[in-house]
Amino acid sequence: MIYTPKEKKSIHYLATIVNAYRQDIDAFFLDTENYVLSQVWRGEIHKAANRPLNTVFFL
User: Fold this and answer.
1) Three-class SS of residue 37?
2) d(CA 30, CA 43)
3) What is the SS3 assignment for 26?
4) Which of 7, 34, 38, 58 has its CA 20 to 30 A from that of 48?
5) pLDDT in tens, 3-48
6) Cα Rg for the chain, rounded, in angstroms?
7) Which of these, 30, 24, 27, 25, lies nearest to 42 by C-alpha position?
8) Is the pLDDT of residue 50 over 90?
9) Dihedral of CA 38/41/47/53: which sign?
10) Residue 59 and residue 7: Cα distance in Å, rounded?
């Protein structure tokens, strides 16, 4: 079964989310011992979201 969302996300939304996650993943692999989730990237994800988020998707 293929999931088809009822509303499509904008290119800006997609770019914002992918960029935030990419930067966060890169930061994690640069220093796995001392990694801390950046509040800047988390803030970018929250600004782009149009509904409440769950922390299950954060590393």
Assistant:
1) coil
2) 21
3) helix
4) 34
5) 566 667 778 888 888 898 899 899 999 999 999 888 888 888 878 7
6) 13
7) 24
8) no
9) negative
10) 26
